[in-house]
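Re: that chain you flagged

S.,

Sorry for the slow reply, it's been a week of failed gels. I finally had a moment to sit down with the sequence you sent. For the record, here it is as I used it:
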Amino acid sequence: MCQAQAGALIIYHPLSIYKENMRILVIGSGGREHAICYSFARSSRVAKIFCAPGNGGISRVAECVAIKPEEIDKLIEFAQQESIDLTFVGGESALALGIVDEFEKRGLKIIGASMSAARLEASKAFAKDFMARHGIPTAHYVTAESPADAIAILEAGHFGNESSAVVVKADGLAAGKGVVVARDRKEAVDACSELADLVGSAAEKIVLEECLVGKEVSLLMFVDGNNFVLMPPVRDHKRIGEGDTGPNTGGMGTITDSGLLTPAQTQQIIAEMIEPTLDGCIEDGFPFRGILFLGLMLTEGGAKLLEYNVRFGDPETQSILVRLESDLVDICEAILGGRLADTAVKWCEGNSACVVLAAEGYPQKPRTGDVISGIDDAASIDAVIVFHAGTVLSPDGSLATAGGRVLGITARGTSLDEALGSAYSAVERITWKGMQYRKDIGQ
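Prediction finished late last night. Pasting the structure tokens below so you have them in one place:
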């Protein structure tokens, strides 16, 4: 299930040095970062893990540090003072601000996309122009310089008639809240106006796209500049309600399943998307190194690229990393050294699933501070791991909700039914006031 692609150019990074008893810093505070810390904790090469800022659950496997991901100077100072051997960036905000560039200027080893490469996620318009320039299959699009400009484009009929569906995207980073799939022109026009209120400056520019029809799949990979290793394909369930109803969220659950992509589809994606993307990054002057995430739509006319992310997704990471057999430290060293083509990455056979438990009021205004019970009982089920996304550890040792998405109940299985069965059995043991989740993940 893993694959490496070798090319003519191998980039050997000067910061790649094999070491034992490593001190690791993970940047972020969600379920994704808990899964990353969990993976590093399984490595025999790791002596100490820090997480900035972390959360209540992460504190059980790493020492949490009260530094925000955007406080790059403070993170650099911490990494230097604590002799951090490797830093791993979880989220997109620090990458967009250039944390990788700043760490590398000081000789600090770090996994993540450079500031230039992070534009593939930080700007939807930049990403769409990049796809067009390098011949990567994607939806027809128009970039509007303002919400008013976007409305004028819609009303001029550039995306069909009044009943045509349109996808409206804020250009900038919007924490998963910047995309609206409008069923008709009126909804699209309303979305152009409402996005500015919802995500602020991220919607100063708006990308309008034709609405593609098909099945969505996420495909992530480790990348060292020229070579890549695929991770198991994932499907995310974005909407809050069962049957894919209600508003979009950051993700209410994921599954990994090799059947999500046929061998022919995988080869098409490699030839038409992955290789042109990595070659295009080199051609445009920003070789990509880190984690690359492709959001795909499988249409009747073949796979098309919806968007790039330049880091692990959440909650995709939870489902993926519970199946990783190889040492994550070894993979990071291969990324830094340009050696992924020569690195065997092994995955557990079977399937995995993650069911997100969210707070009351999510995704609009989640309530926080509710005491959570049953986590240890749930985690006692074989092959179940409880990843914390939005929790805080109280002085009395209890855990309470501290965000919209609170927990990611994750399980492996020899089949998808087995993984989902274990995950939902664990869900039934956890309670707090107002807890909500979808009962149809994987269906």
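What I noticed first: The radius of gyration is 21 Å.

Talk soon,
D.
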